[in-house]
Amino acid sequence: MSGTTTAAAGLRRRAAGAGANRWVVLVVLCVSLLLVAVDATVLHVAVPAVTEDLRPGAIELLWIVDTYPLVCAALLILFGTLGDRVGRRRVLLLGYALFGVASALAAFAPNAQVLIVARGLLGVGGAMIMPATLSILRHVFPDRRERALAIGIWSAVAAVGAAVGPLLGGFLLEHFWWGSVFLVNIPLMLVSLPVGRLLLPESRGSVGGPWDVIGALMAAAGLFAVVLGVKRLGGGELDVFTAVPLAVGAALLVLFVRRQRRRTYPLVDLRMFARPAFSTSVCCIVLAMLALVGLELIAAQYLQLVLGLSPLETGLRLLPLTFAAMAAGLAGAKLLRRFGPRRMVSGGFCLTALAVLTLTAMGQADNATLLLLGFVLLGFGLETTLFAAYESMLSEAPPEQAGGAAAIGETSYQLGAGIGIALLGSVMNAAYAPGLSSVPGVPASASASAGHSLGEAYEVAAQLGGPAGAALRRAARECFVHGLHVTLLVSAGLLLLGAVMALRLPRVMVCEPPTAKTEPETEREVGLPAPREVVESRVSA
C-alpha cells in the first residue's frame, strides 16, 4: 500500500513538471515555425540585390524564388509520415541542422546555380520542420482545450513570420549584403538544436508495418509537379510546360491514392477523409489560403502602382492585417469553446467576405481609413477560419497519424496559396486587359503589351509619352481598379461558399476525457521515463 502511495505521489510531481514543460515545448516549436515562415518571404525584397550581384537569367531567377516553396510543398507528406515512424523530434532536429547548413550555403553562394541548390535544401529542411511542429504540438497537448490555445499561439506566430520576413529583409539589406537574409538563420539554429534536443519530447505513431518508400516518392513527385503547374498557371503561362506537369502530377497523385487504399499499412490513412470534420477542415484551409494569398498579391500591386506607395509604406499599410490575425489566433481558443467549430469557421468566412466587399469601395484615390478597416476585418476573419479549421483537423485525426495529418494540412495550405494566385490572377487579367484594347492614340501592339500588367502598362506609357502615354496610363489605372473590384467580388463568392461548406463541421467543441492508459505509458508518450517506483510496484504485484 505504501509503495502504491509513493508511486502516486511521484507521478503527481512528474505530471506537474510535464505540465510546466509543455509551454516551454510550445515556445521552442514556435521559434521553429517563425524561422520557416520568415524564410518563405524574406527573399522577396532581396531579389533586386541578388539579380545585380549574381546576374541570373530569367529562368534562374524564377527558380531562385520558387524552389523553396516547391520543394517544401512536395516533401511535406514524405517527412510528416516519416516522423510518425522514426520519431518526430528526430526529424525536426535533422531539419534544424539541414536548415542551418543550407542557410550558410545560400548566404555565400557564388552563383545562381549554387543559390538554387541551397534554396532547394532549405525547402527540404522546411518540409522536415513544419509538420513536425504541429504533430509534436498535437502530442504534447492531449487535452483539446489546452491544444486549442497552443494552436492559436502557433498560428499567431505564423502570421508574425509572414509579415516580419519582408521588413527584416529590408532592414538587413540597408546595412549588409543580400546574403545576410540567410545568414541570420544560423545563430538561431545553433541555439535551437541543443535546446530542442534537451527539451522536446520524442514521439512516434503506433502504426506497424514498413514505411511505404515508393508511396512517399510518388506523393512527393506528384505534389511537386502539381504545384509547379499551378505556379506557372498563376503566372499566365498556358503552354505545354504548364499542362504536362499538371497532368503528370494529377496522375501520380491518383496512383498514390489507389496504392494507399490497397496497402495493409498505408503511408496516409485515407479513411481520415471519410470523417466529415477532417475533409471539411482541409477544404476550408484551401479556400481560406486561396483568398488570402491572391488578395494580398493584388492589394500590394494596388498600393504601390495605383496609390504610388513605396515598398516600405506598402508593408506598413498591410501590418494591421497581421496584427488582426495575431489577435484572432490568441483569442481563438476562447472563441472556439464558446461558439464551436461550425459557427467559428463559417463566421470567419462571412467576416472575411464582409471585409472583401468593404474593400470594393477602393478607388484611384487613397482612403486610409477604408483600407485600415478592410485589412483588420480581413486579417481577423481569415485567421479565425484557419485556426478553427486546423484545430478541428488535428483533433479529428488519430494521434498515431498526427504527422501525416499535419502534413496534409500544410500541403493544403501551400496548394491553396498556389491556386489562389492562379485563379484570382486569371480573373484579374480577364477583367483588366479588355479595357486597354481601344485607347485613343495608342497602337494595337502597345495596347497588347500594356494588357499584361499594370507595371508593364506604365512602362509602355512612358515610352509613348505625350497625350497617348498619359491616356494609356490613365486607362490602365481605371482598368486595374475595375479588375480589382471584379476579383474582390469573385473572392467574396468563394468565401461564402466556404461558409456554407463549414456547416458540415461539428456544432460544439467536443473535449473527450483522456483515454484510459496506465500512468507510466502516458508519461513515456511525452518523453518522460517511467518512474522507477511504479515499475517496481508492478513487478511486485
UniProtKB/TrEMBL annotation:
Major facilitator superfamily (MFS) profile domain segment(s): 25-510
GO cellular component annotations of the record: plasma membrane
Region: Disordered, residue numbers: 515-541
GO biological process, one term: response to antibiotic
Main location: membrane
CDD domains: MFS_MMR_MDR_like (cd17321)
A Pfam family matched in the record: MFS_1
PROSITE patterns, alphabetized: MFS
Segments passing through the bilayer: 23-46, 58-79, 91-110, 116-137, 149-169, 175-199, 211-228, 240-257, 278-303, 315-333, 345-362, 368-390, 483-503
Subcellular location per the Swiss-Prot or TrEMBL entry: Cell membrane
Alphabetic keyword roster: Antibiotic resistance, Cell membrane, Membrane, Transmembrane, Transmembrane helix, Transport
Membrane topology: Multi-pass membrane protein
SUPFAM superfamilies for this protein: MFS general substrate transporter
A Gene Ontology molecular function term of the record: transmembrane transporter activity
Top-level division of the source organism's lineage: Bacteria
UniProt protein name: Transporter
Protein source organism: Streptomyces antibioticus
